[in-house]
Amino acid sequence: MASQKIKVGIPRALLYYKFFPMWTTFFKELGAEVIVSPKTNKILKDVAVSIAPDEDCYSSKLYYGHVMALKDKVDCYFIPRFSSGGFGKGHEKNVSCPKFIGLAEVLRSVFPDLPEIIMPYFSTAKNNHGKLKFLKYCFSIGSKFTKNPFKIRTAIKKALKNQKEHYQQIQISVDELQKWERSEILLNEAPNVEEGDVPLKVAIVGHSYVLNDPYQSIEIMKKLTSHGVDCITSEQMPRELVEHQMKFLDFNMYFEYEREIIGTVMHFLESKTIDGILHLIIFSCGPDSIGGELCSRFSRRKPEVPLLQLVIDEHTGEAGLNTRIEAFIDMLRRRKSIKEKKIRRKIECP
Amino acid sequence: MPITFPHFGSLTYVFETLLRELGRKDIIVPNKPSKRTAELGTRYSPEFVCTPFKITLGTFIEALERGATELGMGGCNAYCRFGYYWPVQKLILEDLGYDFRFVPIDYEDPLAIVRTLKNESDGFSYLQTLRALQKTWVKNRFTDLVDKLRYEYRAIETVKGTTDRVAERAFKTIVETKGMINIRKLKKTLPLMFEKEIEIDNSLDPLKIAIIGEIYVVFEPALNVDVHRRLNELGVICETPASLRRFIDIGYKLNPFLKLHREVSVKIAEPYLGYRCGGEAQESIGDTIFYKNKGWDGMVHLYPFTCMPEIISRSILPQISKEYDMPVLSLVVDEQTGEAGFQTRLEAFIDLLYRKREKDRERKITKKSTKPNVSFQTVYGV
């Protein structure tokens, strides 16, 4: 009966990178076949840019390409209209980018010949959906695949468990962060450094769907590792430190994923334990236009840690980006050696 | 401490009234945004932030140069970037070296509005503040009314320019009228004023176009290149359903027998865009269907460059336009919008609408003329 499985298509873009353990296990446990679109490549990008609405941001343009890549292979899509998630305090107000809410409906109206789209709406912010509503949505989706409520229940349980494990795996603890700041441990595989040199510490901040997509971020992680840099991403940052930084602002950062970015930048600007911050901005991204400006203004007020902001869009050339990253890292190296010299001089002649 | 606020089309009068009612005497009424305002705003703004940010920043800089120290601004906790306007503008203006204080008003929460206004008032109690706010929201109904009348009469007036003069005077009377009884009387006197003083050409058969989209762009003539006037000069009656009253008109909200226009249009939009996603996205979609059912001829959809919610509605609008046979012209507005290009597109759109209307009428006539014949034959069997 394997051939009769319903095929569920999940585009590998935007929120997929945040919630893929939950979504994939949920549908697999229900007995559906999950088909995830291929990783972003040049052909997909060209298709995406030609069909997407011309004013969307680069990331949501790519989403159209991922949807098109699945078009003939699946029976239905899973594109949730997601406004904000997470239960507990602090989640009553925060929302995410409005494009996530409208995405499924825009796709349905722009391409009427697409297969059915499963689009549950979930928001803990304005509509105050609680855990009960979440279960209700899960059951209503599950009933499309199986009539056995116990099967749905186990699927929900496993999905939530996997998601939790995924979060725990990604986020590091405060202890680990402090150890990393003291250069006692490495977070990634050993970076390529000359002998006797300590690897530079750089924080890469940006949306999770940019950092985890090697094509979109132009393989920035690999490049940094090859230049002898050990990097931490804004996703890895412990949540409590981010929330702690948010208290210093005199307004509420209500974009859920922008909090992560600004919190990380603010933390490192204050602690000064790393050598530099690299901010990846997607062209014409709404939240980033505000977040980028806030970060750059904050860093201008606390100039000890240099901040490089790179704007990426579909026309970004790799060579130009490489030059800027290399220049940035060279500058960080020089700063570090000057700093060390100063410290040594202080020790020698107090 | 002189207080100022951003220029917001005809709503500028509403804000001015509100501050007057609160007992503030040191008000700096902002100038109309000019080219210099846009330039100033653009110079210090982030690169791809939406256009209202740049214009409001420009007006603030100009007001600070004129001596303002308190800046009133809306703040919210919604889906759109608007809630971040004042924090970012505060950082930018601080870096420019100005000495000021921001007064953010969370307009989504009626209690927060009253609380903030009380702090800004001249030692008012809560009840007094509420009274002042009530006068403001009632006056806002009349500014909306004057706007509506103005966009209607200007298209069919015989002597050009009379409507603008009358509207200007009407706005002044709205601002200056005091006392709740006198204000309530305006409901009758304002339409009479328009009726008496403006000669209209009854032989005309004007097109009717609704202008929808993001509220700031729709209201601010300096940003939308005065699209209402352009349409009126082409002989088209227009109307804007967008209104600030959905936030401040608490009386209307509490009345169970009255419904704001917004609630109606959101309900209509539900099958296409089910949930609120900020801006006027749902309203734009609902209004298109609403005005089609009302028998209007077309829609002009305006939104600022990179506005997130309106891009969603813009992507869905072609489908609705096709389904309901309602022409929609989507126009992006930013500080570099050229007047000539705008005018050409509007003229072409209106030519198209005239032709479409004639065709529709012909079709209706032929339908009407065939129908009775059929019934006649079937009844009498001739």
CATH architecture of the largest domain in chain B: 3-Layer(aba) Sandwich
Number of domains of chain A: 2
Query: CATH topology of the largest domain in chain B, which one?
Result: Rossmann fold
Strand content of chain B: 5-15%
- The oligomeric state of the chains shown is heterodimer
> What's the total helix number of chain B?
16
Give me the side-by-side strand order of the main sheet of chain A.
2-1-3-5
Biggest pleated sheet of chain B: 4 strands, parallel
Mean pLDDT of chain B: 88
What is the number of strand segments of chain B? 7
CATH architecture of the largest domain in chain A: 3-Layer(aba) Sandwich
CATH class of the largest domain in chain B, please? Alpha Beta
Radius of gyration of chain A: 22 Å
Residue windows where pLDDT falls under 50 for at least 5 positions of chain B? none
What is the terminal-to-terminal distance of chain A?
80 Å
Mind explaining what this structure looks like?
The complex is a heterodimer of chains A (350) and B (382). Chain A folds into two domains: 2-170, Rossmann fold; 174-348, Rossmann fold, CATH 3.40.50. Chain A has helices at 16-29, 42-51, 58-69, 98-110, 131-142, 149-170, 174-181, 208-211, 220-226, 239-246, 256-271, 286-301, 318-348; strands at 7-10, 33-36, 76-78, 81-84, 116-118, 121-123, 200-205, 229-233, 276-282, 307-312. In chain A, strand 1, helix 1 and strand 2 form a beta-alpha-beta unit. Chain A has 13 helices and ten strands. In chain A, strands 2-1-3-5 form a four-stranded parallel beta sheet, covered by helices on one side. With 350 residues, chain A is an alpha/beta fold. Chain B has 382 residues and is an alpha/beta fold. Chain B has three domains: 3-124, Rossmann fold (3-Layer(aba) Sandwich); 133-205, no CATH class; 206-370, Rossmann fold, CATH 3.40.50. Helix content of chain B is 59%, strand content 10%. Chain B is built from 16 helices and seven strands. Chain B has helices at residues 11-21, 35-44, 51-65, 85-95, 110-120, 126-156, 162-176, 180-197, 215-219, 227-233, 245-248, 250-254, 261-269, 281-294, 308-324, 339-380, and strands at residues 3-4, 70-75, 101-106, 207-213, 236-239, 298-304, 328-333. In chain B, the strands form two sheets. Chain B has a four-stranded parallel beta sheet, sandwiched between helices. Chain B has a three-stranded parallel beta sheet with strand order 1-2-3, sandwiched between helices. In chain B, helix 5 crosses helix 6 and helix 6 (126-156) packs antiparallel against helix 7. The longest helix of chain B has 42 residues, at 339-380. Chain B is globular, with a radius of gyration of 23 Å. Chain B starts with a strand and ends with a helix. The chains are: A alpha/beta (350), B alpha/beta (382). Chains A and B meet through helix 4 and helix 12 of A and helix 4 and helix 15 of B.
